[in-house]
Amino acid sequence: MKYEEWDAYDRHLNRIPGETLVRGEPIPEGMYHLVSDVIVRHTDGTWLLMQRDRKKNWGGMWEATAGGSALRGESAYACAERELAEETGITDAELEQVGVLISHAYHTIFAEYLCVTDQAKDTIALQEGETQAYKWVTTEELRQMKRNELITERMQGFLQELR
Q1: Domain holding 10: CATH number?
Q2: Would 46 disulfide with which of 4, 52, 136, 159, CB 3.0-4.6 Å?
Q3: How many domains does the chain fold into?
Q4: Least confident interval from 48-62, 84-98, 127-141, 148-162
Q5: What is the 3-state secondary structure (H, E, C) of 8-56?
Q6: What confidence category does residue 152 fall into, taking pLDDT thresholds of 50, 70 and 90?
Q7: Which residues are CB-neighbours of 30 under 8 A, at least 6 positions away?
Q8: d(CA 113, CA 118)
Q9: Which domain holds residue 70?
Q10: Between the CA atoms of 112, 158, 148 and 59, what dihedral angle is there, to the nearest 10 degrees?
Q11: CA 3 from centroid of its chain's CA atoms
């Protein structure tokens, strides 16, 4: 596990001055860390799915977002841009924030973004140790994915919204 420092937030997405969180250490009660997730849609209407590296948790499953934890001093938007570039190679997209979700159980605030891109579909870059494949799927194909194919409850909620 790599060493990362995160800003601590309250449940209203306000940074807590003087508090720093460290990946892998318990997050104190009343504090949250920030995660940015980006859902990618091509201008032709298809969605980008990334397959997790087999060595990771949920290895081999598909996820409909690129994302991760915001580093200390990094805004939600900057984190979304960085994670999108690292995990897909998409670097020149405009992102639109489409929601914020709070997980009290995991002490996490999820900033959700939509990226609409016209980047050539065959230029997606895989991040070694993170992803092993990608595919573009239609909305109907995404709706038909089974619970054991697409990870996270947030993605299942997103699918419900598409229906």
Answers
A1: 3.90.79.10
A2: 136
A3: 1
A4: 148-162
A5: EECCCCCEEEEEEEECCCCCCCCCEEEEEEEEEEECCCCEEEEEECCCC
A6: low
A7: 10, 11
A8: 17
A9: 5-162
A10: -20
A11: 19
